[in-house]
Write a structure and sequence with these properties.
Blueprint (H helix, E strand, L loop, with lengths): L7 E4 L9 H17 L2 E4 L11 H14 L22 H13 L3 E4 L3 H13 L15 H9 L5 E4 L6 E5 L3 E5 L1 H4 L3 E3 L7 H11 L4 E5 L6 H11 L5 E5 L2 E2 L15 H7 L3 H9 L15 H7 L10 E2 L2 H14 L2 H14 L9 H14 L9 H9 L3 H6 L1 H6 L3 H13 L8 H15 L4 H12 L7 H12 L10 H15 L1
Parallel strand pairs: 1-2, 8-9, 10-11
Antiparallel strand pairs: 3-4, 4-7, 5-6
Amino acid sequence: MDKTDKPRVRFAPSPTGQLHIGNVRTALYNWLFARKTGGSFVLRIEDTDVERSEKRFETQLMEDMKWLGLDWDEGPDVGGPYPPYRQSDKMSVYRSYADRLIREQKAYYCFCTAEQLERERQQAMAEGRQPIYSGKCRELDRDEAERRRTDGEAAAIRLKIPEHPIRFHDIVRGNVEFSNEVVSDPIIVRSSGMPVYNYVVVIDDADMKITHVIRGDDHISNTPKQVALYEALGLPVPEFAHLSTILGPDRERLSKRHGATSVANFREMGVLPEALMNYLALLGWAPSGGDREIFPEDDLIREFSLERVTPAPAIFDNDKLNWLNRHYLKQSPPERIHSLAAGFLQRAGLLPETADQSITAWANRLIDLLAPYVDRLEQLPQRASIIFHTDPQAALASEENSQVFANEKAIVVVQGFGPRIANDSPLTAERFKAVTNEIKAETGAKGKDLFHPVRIALIGSHSGPDFDRLIPLIEEGSRLSLPVHVESVRERVQEFLAALEQRK
């Protein structure tokens, strides 16, 4: 790359499923590198896997990237100077390059059947040799090869690997070398006429002037084949940076058994995009200057460098992601959290799909009250259960709560509320406080001996939000037309006292 040129990087997903965390981390590092260097970030769709590629997956992966905040300078939807940006639109180009390699005798037709290749592989393994292609078709006479093709015999096209080691520099791992015997002569076009990944990716990267190939380390074994193709075609070899594998807590490759693994999963769970971006950036990249962990987008762009990407595997830690998400939830404008959180409560059947102004205002107060207690917005419905539903029997069955009511004074405290609030509708926070003080004076209960029994009676737990915010929310909710009836404070106390009677 000329020093006056700007870097060009690409993210090239296959639209065969949801966007995996490992893939989007790769997209993020490419994007950060482009934004840091003032270069171009290219989105290319690798859809040559015709049987598995689907338009809906292409649409979703683009939506997921936009949600995360990753925009691209060139791509199938925005165009650019080096089209097309879908491999399926480029088949004639791949064919022309393959024909050129055949003409220049840098590639050859291979007529070996799948059965022959499998027998060859099994024999090599039995003899303790590398199970690589023997090269038996390499020396076929060109005229004979053309005659066999003309006669309709199926043939793949293989690249001739040079008789010397293949070397390349990796920004993350340093100098890498592969013996030519290990690489063997790779197929670049199948007998069906379909070009293979290691071939088309080189053509695409060269045609699109890609200067840096930043991708997962599962591609390291592909790189010597690609370098050999660049050299055979007389094309400049880009810089490589292979990113470490992401592992689960058990140090196995991250998979569905570890929980959420796609961007869509985390989005549906109520993880904020800036939290996920921040967390993914730290999965394999070590910022300079201490152990800082909070990196808004602008700071990530300013700090990022490929030289500080580590080759060691990264461990995906859900607790760390939850911690970051709590931080960004608290930092976000309330209006944004109201909008996002309402959907989770609606899908849980706690709020109507369309709400009037009074319900919306009440729901916003509910969200303000509970959001600080959740790691992800999907936890809000469960947290909101203390407002929408009480189960005195279950509350008393809790060992922790039972210990509270083993003290007779706790029962007296709750009993003191019944007659005092019987005619209060609605019960205000001020009236609730006055009643609590009366019971305190009457029973001598104070601190947790006073407040724990009351809280258990109202929400089923001795810990929870402040009464000053809780009581008005319960009372107002009991008068709204919600899909689930919110029991008033009076109703809750009455039901709890009935449950206490049944327990005797």
